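Long-time lurker. I teach an intro course on protein structure, and each term I like to show students one example going from raw sequence to a predicted 3D structure in token notation. This year I'd like something fresh instead of my usual example. Would anyone be willing to generate the tokens for the chain below so I can use it in lecture? Attribution to the forum is fine with me.
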Amino acid sequence: MNTIYKHTIRRIFGCVLLSTLPLGVMAQNVRVIKRDGTIKMYDGSKQNIKVMPVPTVNTNDKVKTGSTLYDNLQALGNYTTYLRLIDSFGGIQRAFKNEVTDDERKYNGSIDTLTVFAPNDEAFARFFAHNAWTDEQGNAISSYEQLSDGQKRALIYVSYIPGFVTANSLHVSGSFRGYHRLYSYDRQFNLVPYKHTGGTDINTFPPDSYSYIDYAKELNQHIVDGVWIGYGTIGNNTDGAFAYSGGTMIWNDDYWQYNGLSHDDLAFIGAADPEGSGHITIGNAHITQPNQRCKNGYLHLVDEVVVPQPNLMYTLTQARFGDKYSLASSLIQRFNYLKYDSDYTGYSALINHGDSAMTVRNSLLDRVAIKTPAIILPTDEALKAFILASDNPLGQCGINQDNYYDMLMSLPREVLQPFVKEWFRTSFTDVLPSRYSNMRSAKGHQLLADVTSPEAYKLAVQQVIPAVDGIIVVVDAVPNAEDLRNELTFVKLAGRVTGAALTANDRYEYNTNAAPFSTDYQREMHNKPFTMFVPTDEGLKQYGLVDPMSMASNNRVSWRYWSLTPQSISSSGNGQIAVAAKAYRYDYNKVRNTETDRPLSAMYSSNANENCANGNYGPIKRQLLTDMLDQHIVLQDVDSLLNTPRRWYLSRSGMPIYMKEHTNTNIVVNGGMQIDLNERDAADKHDCTLQFVGQNSTGTSVFIDRPMQPTNQNVFQRLQSNDAFSMFFDCANALNGAYDLKNQLFDIEASEALSRKYTIFADRSGGYTRYGNANTMLVNFFHNFNYTIFVPTNEGMQKAVEAGLPTIESIEQFVEESLDGNGQLPDDKREQAQARYLTLLNFLKYHFCDKSYFLEPDLESGDTEQTTTACIDASNQQALTADINSGNGMLMVRDASNRYKAVKPDLANIIARDAEFNNDPTRARYIRSASNVVLHGIDNADYLLFDNTLNGDFTRAWRTPSAARKFVKKYGK
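-- Reply from a regular --
Happy to contribute to a lecture. Here you go:
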């Protein structure tokens, strides 16, 4: 294969990658032009990069400036093996002899000048005596005659770069940033042939009906334990495929010292000679005689044969079959995947048994591959000791000395990903001893928790492995151990559906807009005491989650519940969650059981690959999982839940949780829906009972046999359906129907915002439609808040009416009786009518109080705290307040009259949820906002008073026009 390869340059964040790739694979040529004793380097945009003086005197008197590279190598006398290598490729030989033809320049992009890193015969003798290469029969390469054409290409292509480049120019030029990369082939070993069947989008994988695993089995020579490892070995052609050929790095010690790194740092990673300084390192070789100028280039004489270094992917693959860090390598390769390669698909001659090319990639390496990354790997001994340690949550899942490898390899990727991803560092400078104090995880932990200093770090390092695209540092410690020992690992292991939801956003850490959830649950729970009630996978599969959007409809035929099961994500995309969902018909008069219930049609499903932001039923799945996480996480430690007489708690999002039973041996919890089902004595009623408990570093995971869910009943429905609250509900509901009255009093016809100001519930009309449960309205205020409504019973409302509280009917009657002869309402009468309306409105609103308060019958002592109400003093824009007192088995409210009003026990702790959907319930896919509400009936035929001046007589608000005007100013405009 005598094709001259075109040298190209790619810019990657200031680094320059020099490649010798087949013509057409890359663009943007480097041009080196000799002009008046100088060398000018240009990039593809013709922009001048650097001007360097050309040395005029060679230190080796055998090298003549007027002779070609080839002639000078012959003149040196002891470069015969390197010359044999050059002679193996006619095009390269002509370049060294300065005999490149016009056709080669025109069609192959050949260049007339080369910078050569030439090893002598002694260097080749050392190479043949000590190398890891083998011939086609598997024998060790010990002579030039054993080298295959592929191995020869690998050696020749890393021994030169284009143009006149002095040794100093390898780092002085700002565009070079201290190192070059010499490549033979960019993708190196990790190429897989791929048989593309007709009609399939080549950019998607797997093709047609293939599953990922099925295709893997067909190419089982590229699979180890189900993980893609790709083709090739160093310097060999394997099975006729495009084999790995390798590359190397060129480093300059002086450059990096000038930029703040020490010589010891570079020696640490093998980028400098430990015994000296100022050396330029080309992979494993050093320049001994630089800048020997020839007619058509420079000779830099080196002390060793430049051997292609493997890339990181290949190095990790080889490590998998070793005995030092094979366990860590195996974990990393759990994140391998195939990606279609359009460039190499065009080189059909390179692929024996396929018509397309796939490259093996690693999603963790992709995150950091924009620079020259480093990977920190623990030794097998360190990782094994950590896994089997007594404080590791894995031990609670049965991992032991005999099964640790199998269990570790079967851990869900969502458990491994936050642990392993921190082993990948974006730059090699992150792992240098001088930078050790900055080697931290994304959560701020020291990456090697038990290694406390740079000196201890050097002792912990067992091996540094250079690769062409980065380095691997093997340490006798476990990087980022806290992320596998942390509070959520046990949850992710024992509840895979919950774990998949908790970690779903991890896939999108660099593109948070594409993440499925708006909340980072893990970050919120990090280093905080918490109790997480985790529904078992079996419970989520068998009982599922009832769809609140479907329940919002009055049509029982539309009611659904969704069975949830863990499922791997097999393609890349936005908004994905590793959970599958399937819908079943729901009827609370039947016990849910997916084993016996008939599923709905296949269209009512969502797989793990679906975008949960805008897929078909993906948004419903996301909503169910959001509610599940919001309902089951309590930001309190378990002792504060169990060692107290309290029964009611709030989840992280304010959803009520009722602790029906809690002892050291048993826990029974209910969400709002479970309370409703139990009170209804429905066939589907069920308590959520304890299965087992997992203790973590800062929290506790309480596994329950089935999930809790919030209630589907909103405030409108709770008030409407409770006979004891009918007068309060009728007064609130009547405000919405009094449109003509409001327009007559407040001139609100042109303003929906003003219309909302004068109601309790939001009309489902106009441009401000808020979709709630069918045939209901949502409360106008406290959106996305938790609040409590202290509701006067009918007896309490009657008492208020007898004290002069107006109703819509009485206000309308007053207006009608006050009209003048022209049918107009005089100003003074209007103000009095306004005062009447505002008295009723603010009377109702004052009973809506911020925060959730519960009656706790067994609580002997409690606290008094001030709460704000929905009633606003317009004169200062301040919310009116009330005082809440709990304790002695009572819940009381002190209003503006300075008197406490008690909650009626048999009308206490009624749970509601004002859920606003994105559309009409028949078409809704998710909840836009939700408020969690507690309702209590007020005992002793009483009510709350919002203004003490009205104590005993509400008519004081409008008794005179001046009183009405003053009242309206305070509570109205």
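Some talking points for your students: Residues 94 and 101 are 8 Å apart (CA to CA). The two ends are 88 Å apart (CA to CA).
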